[in-house]
Amino acid sequence: MRYLSSFRTSLKISRYLFRVLGFMLWALGALLTSFYITNLFNALKSDIRQEYNTNYDIAFSHIRHIANILRDFQFMAEKHLSQENDKKQTIVPHNNDILSYIPLNENSDCELLRKTSNTNLYSLDQLIAFWRGNIAAIRSVNQAFFIGVQSKCMVSFFPHHNITEPEALKKMIDENTRRLISMRKQNNERTLFWIQPNPKADGGNLYVFSPIYINGHMTGIIGIEKSIRLDSFLQRRDWPITVMMLNESNQPELQFSIKTNNRPRVINLNSQSMYFGYDENFTSLVLMRNLSPSSLRVIYSIPLKHIYDELKASVINSIILNIISAIAIIFFVWLFERKMFSPAEENAIRLEEHEQFNHKIVASAPVGISILRVSDGINILSNELAHNYTRMLTYEDQKRIVDIICDKTSSYIDVVTSNNNHLQISFVHSRYRNEEVAICVLIDVSTRVKMEKSLQEVASAAEQANQAKSMFLATVSHELRTPLYGIIGNLELIQSHTLPSKSARLLATMNNSSLLLLKIISDILDFSKIESNQLKIAPQNFSCKEILSHVISNYLPLVVKKGLGLYCYIEPDVPDIIRSDPVRLQQIISNLLNNAIKFTGSGCVVIEVCSRHDYLYISIKDTGPGIDDKLQLQLFEPFFQISANKESASQGTGLGLAICEKLINLMDGDIEFVSQKYVGSIFSIRLPLYSAKYHAKPLSNRRTQKRILLEICNEFMEKYLQNFLIQNHFQVVLYNENDENNIDGTEIRISDQACKANISAYSFIEISEKHTGPPAQIRENYWLHNTYELSELDSLLDNLMTEQTLFLPAVSLSTAPITTKTIKADIRLNTIKVLVVDDHPINQNLLVDQLNSIGFNTSMANDGIDAIEYLNNNPIDIILTDVNMPNMDGYELSQYLRDKGYTKPIIGITANALAAEKQRCTNVGMNDCLSKPVSLAILKETLIKYSDI
Questions:
Q1: Burial class of residue 87, CB neighbours in 10 A (0-12, 13-18, 19+)
Q2: Which of 815, 812, 817 minimizes the C-alpha distance to 502?
Q3: Rounded to 5 degrees, what angle do the CA atoms 350, 356, 362 make?
């Protein structure tokens, strides 16, 4: 119970931990999204910095280019103003006004500069003009100046260029000149750069001044003016970048912006030559760098708002993604709790209830229940009944039970307690409280053991009764067959003689009654064999068509006598040879056909045989009264009869259908029926086609010479004949009254109606159910054919087409004389001597008369001892002995003779036709065993088989 409580607590803790896990999962996603946005921001920041550096390289190149031009001018000025070079120059008159001398202030002395350096300055002007005309880089220079240090006078080398605001320019040049001189005195001279912005402040003029030294003394200052535009320092125009130019005091001189008026607040970083970061207001991303060798600085800035706008879509998508992920995680946590934790908590509560309930069940169970630990066999839990049973066991029994449970060698064990009670202990292995346990169920089976013992005694008594019944049936069968053998055998001997017609008819009636009595006895015996599992199926190859023909020929007189029609349709796809038990199949078909004829007062009986899906189907239909629905369920029960038909001469035993069902099951088949009251019945059997074979039939090449015209009113027969004749390669045409003009009289017409007088045809075949026997010609070109041999119609058609027909008169069985088969004595058999051993005088004399009528030479002996004495004195070729005799029976006689080395044939005769009886005959050395009554034909066939003839 505490375990279940802790389990519920664990489930609650797991639920909260799962919620925390969901939040942490969302937080992880948010953190990854933040990293992703930060990475995008840094990537964009890196791109901006790279763009800044590119723009800076342009500005730096521009300043470096101006410095290089000034250095070239400085070099030329120092060269032309040196004394050595001054002596070589051509003297220029003083009134030459090519050069423009401009005083910078009131104290300027331009005359002094003209007197001392006019010639040199003129030569320098000519050289600069030459360079400017031939070097494209110098053309971008607006002005070039020379300022005398002592005279404070400025000379402009490009006088044709207009100077904007000359006073402001002179003032600016004068200030920077004094500054440069002051720096010289402080030994800190350098090139000065300053900018004069235009009114828009996005461009202006860049001035660069540098001192000129001659013989180590600064004699003048050379300077140039060049236009500068900040938009030329920008490579891309799609970004809102602002560029600013600062002087050495970090004061803005020039400013140019693209698509914005942003002006970042400048950060004072004098100690750093480069700065990349944010301005003081954190509104712009700034790059500030020195433009060496000048003291100017350039600043590139872009508003952070632009960066945020670039990342706006990604940020919004990330926020949406995080919101969706939060909703999904919340939904998943809710769903998981609903599907897993909530049912688990409910199951925990149920488990607690179930455990309480199970404890109560175990305690109140009518059997002993005990839970043993597998490791040491200790009892963990048990009810009171298990305790009581356990106290009844001895220590040795308890130890043996524990060993069996621990070894897992069996799942149950039976134990007899000290007070002779029988306990059955069954167990299964499982886990309980995290341990391997065995759940044992102890049941007191003393009452059941006593009951089983009683049932065994009853079963044994039943088995003995069954054996007694079988022995009784065999004895009764033997006792009945023995006198019946005398009756049938003597009747057969009488029929072999020529008798008057009336005597022959009476004798035939007696013979039929005897055979009917024999059939009843045989049915009872067969049923006894089936119940005792002594009836065996003997499969062999045979022709199903021959079996069917034989059965039809046996029952044809009965069909004619009752005035019924008998139709037999054998489909062309039926195999010629199948493998099964022909005797049992004939018995089944005979029984079904006999029932159909017996219960059909008028109409017809139809037999259909076909092959489908590797099965042979045989159906027997009748137009009898049908079977009531209430009686159909009992139809295959033994000794069940539908009605006591007092008008029928033969009632039977009610075993026919029961035997048929048993036999068909033994042959791996089945039987079914359909019946309707006042309509008729259909009984169908299905047999597997084992080793089915087809024989190729010779086909006449004349089958296509003449058309076969079918004029059949019976629709089923018409379809059958059409299919049958087409399968046999005949030209078949169905008769139609509208096509009389297409009939030329050369056809062979087949009809189930009598021929009309005015119909012309090559031959006319009438299929009549009243005709029996082979096809018969009753007049010229007019033939009669029966309805039960339709599968032989092709032979008649071949004969008609080959014009080899004979006139055969029709014969009706109802008028045919009764003939009997006579077996004449064979003179060759007189040389074979047969010893008849039988204790019954009637059977003994009957066997002797039968053998003598066949032609054998016979002798008689009363029992086995008498036969041995006779054999010691007389030669014998075949011994024919009864198996049941006093003193020494046939089994003992055969065993004795075989032990003495006797090799002549020994044939047993018995009225007990059980399979065990025949097997016993074989085991003692008999060559064959015949069942009474034995007909003359079977007796002759068997004896000739073992004779030397």
A1: exposed
A2: 817
A3: 125
